[in-house]
Write a structure and sequence with these properties.
It is a single chain. The chain is α/β, with parallel strands linked by helices. It has two domains: 3-267, Spore Coat Polysaccharide Biosynthesis Protein SpsA, Chain A, CATH 3.90.550; 292-519, Alpha-Beta Complex (Outer Surface Protein A, domain 3). It is 45% helix and 15% strand. It is built from 23 helices and 18 strands. Strands 1, 2, 3, 4, 6, 7, 8 and 9 form an eight-stranded mixed sheet that branches. Strands 17-11-18 form a three-stranded antiparallel sheet. Helix 8 (181-196) crosses helix 9.
Amino acid sequence: MDLIKKKNTKVVICQTLWTNGKNLLKDDFGWLTPQHHNMSWALSFLKLNNFYSIVNLHSDSTGIALIKDKLGLPYTNFFDDYSNITCQSNLWALPKLLTYEKQEKPFLHVDGDVFIWQPVKKELLSSKLIAQNLEKGTLYYKRLLTPFAEQLKYIPGFLKRNLLSHDMLSYNMGIVGGYDVEFFKRYVAIAKDFIDKNDETILNSNFNILFEQLLFYSITLNEKKTVTCLFNKVLDDNGYIKNEIASFPKADQLGYMHLIGNYKRDKEVCDWLVRYLRREDEEVFLRIISLFKNQHSFYNGKIKELYPTITSTSANKFRFSKSEHFATVLNPELNFNSNASLCRYIEKSENGLLKELLKYEQKIYRICTKFRKIDSFHLKELENNLMKLVGFLTMNQGDRMPVILSRNPYIEIIHSTFDWTTMQISNMKNINIQCSDKKDIVIGIIPELFFSGYREVILDKICINLIVLTETKISYKDLLEKMNALLPPLKNEKEYKDFYELIFLKIEFLIKNKILIIYDN
């Protein structure tokens, strides 16, 4: 398909990136890491650029320096609107509203965590007012907003009626726009007045929900305006399901994704974001990882071998980072300048948990030393293989049967008393770690080309059996039969259905984590 010929030239697509004085290479902006935040902006733009001829960015000098100069994303226009904005840092939604206000032609504003796989329908784009979907407030919103609203000096009457209603209604504005640009000027003027008439010292981040989403709904209701939504159904404020809004493997089916709230910090979702950006535009992907080269263990080795044009840097050394973090929680005054100094400290420590953690990371180090001997192209093939899962997921049961699977030949296993993969330490009174009396926690260690160079995965008994049975290539059908033979006889159709669903979920999990490999038939 010639995307250039298919691009829509009638509607202006716009996006807003206000950096708020933050460092885009150090601040995560609510994402799992700063790197994933940058990747989200890149993929969001690239998907929009496939279908629309005008995609503008309204930002500040810091945002433009990154997006234009470092990432090289070819937005149609860059507007430096917010370098000198007078805006309380908590009011992160206000620059978005100011972008709506600036539009003089029909427009669609798209958040930087929204991705499209097909153009928005013409019927929707021809509407006077557009939003993603109508949203109903549950106890979650009421508990969040009601106490806060009670502190405000001023609330517009139509918004107050909404806040006091049984169903607190708003619009999700992942996308918003339309032909009625005059409405947006009135809406933003009311929002500004709402902000100005309240004491800025009490305006926290919750206020954004009020002056953006709830106010937009309240004004449209007051003016009897019709808002056409991308999704026809009304969703609860906490009712956004991953499979319906944030599942990259289902992107072609969904056509539209919005990584709302916690999905930005969901490791699985962020892993898929990385893979899809790399597939969409590998050059842009490489520009981003070059900005975070110190976070990619193989950057100056295997990545450089595969992509000789990237700039060299000093080799990234393995750090016992979890042990170091734990030790500094025990004694915040400590500062380790090397792994050796950390090890000397831990050897003298009387904390048994810290000693066990160091032993675990030392095993990881020895495994990563082996991983460094793997051919670079094999590692790249493992990364590429993962995208075959997308087709595997959409197949019906019958079509999956002949698919050939095998385990990753480089997987390493660590048996442990503790689940170090999910260990969280905020202070000595708050250590969150799962443990067992025996060494029956099994952790799979898998090589990766990017990031730390390895992945840690907790394996249950079913996963372990699947790994054993896939030592050599085996069809999905034969694997099901062998797994069935390990269980008590299945008695009825329901038990067979439950068995197939369970094994499929486990195989999907193993493929996502690069432990099982899909082969072409």
